[in-house]
Structures are given as structure tokens and as C-alpha cells.
Design brief:
mainly alpha, 5 helices, about 50% helix, about 10% strand
Length: about 130
């Protein structure tokens, strides 16, 4: 990314040159091109931000859990390794009364005895849940 400032300076210099153009045909065309590039950049940013959000299924799962469950009564939630590495972070832990556990190296059979109410885990089935 060290090249980005140089690219920004080059683009700004080119845009400034286009805006200083004189002529009945070239000046409006240059302004239209700069405006079009700015709009295209905003559209691309929106598309890429949406695609980027879909790259974090663990975060989507935790947000879905928060939407499906009320804040009270407090729940104990286990966050598995895969969920933790694909978007679950402390910033997404919305309910302060809930207890979140990111304890590692637990096998599916061990989870039932730990007192968890909900699991965000990579296994399709866990005994006891």
C-alpha cells in the first residue's frame, strides 16, 4: 500500500489538469469524465463493502443470534474456533448480561457439560444441543 499516496497524487494532478482545460468541447467532457469516475468509485466501494461483509460468516451468525434471542434472560454462548476466526469479535458482543466463551480445543462431546445455552460452532450436530 505504500504506492497508494503516489497514485492519489497522480490522479489529483490529472484531474486538476482536466479541470483547467479550455475549449468548448474538451472542458465539459473532462468534467463529465471526472464526475463519472467519482460515481463509479462510489458504486464500486458499495459493492466491495457488501461483498466484504459476506466474508465474515461468524460475525453474521452472532448478529443473527442477537436478533433471534432477547437480551434477558442472560445466556451462556460458546464461540467455536471457526466462528472466532471468521468475524466474531468482542465488538459484536451486544448483550452485556450474556456470558461469551471462546475457550479453545473443546470437542463436541465436552460442550454439553460446560453449561452453554447456545453454540456458534463448526459442527453440524453437537450431542445435547
Amino acid at each position: 500500500f505504500p504506492a497508494l499516496p503516489l497514485l492519489n497524487v497522480t490522479a489529483a494532478a490529472g484531474a486538476a489538469r482536466c479541470l483547467r482545460m479550455k475549449g468548448a468541447f474538451s472542458a465539459p467532457l473532462a468534467r463529465l469524465a471526472i464526475f463519472g469516475l467519482a460515481v463509479a468509485t462510489l458504486i464500486a466501494m458499495g459493492v466491495m463493502a457488501t461483498a466484504s461483509a459476506a466474508n465474515y460468516p461468524g460475525g453474521v451468525a452472532l448478529a443473527g443470534l442477537h436478533a433471534a434471542e432477547p437480551a434477558e434472560p442472560p445466556l451462556r454462548v460458546h464461540i467455536g474456533n471457526l466462528a472466532a476466526t471468521t468475524g466474531v469479535s468482542r465488538f459484536l458482543q451486544a448483550h452485556s448480561a450474556w456470558k461469551y466463551s471462546k475457550e479453545e480445543h473443546l470437542q463436541p462431546a465436552e460442550l454439553y457439560g460446560r453449561g452453554f445455552d447456545r453454540l456458534l460452532a463448526e459442527w453440524p450436530e453437537v450431542p445435547g444441543f
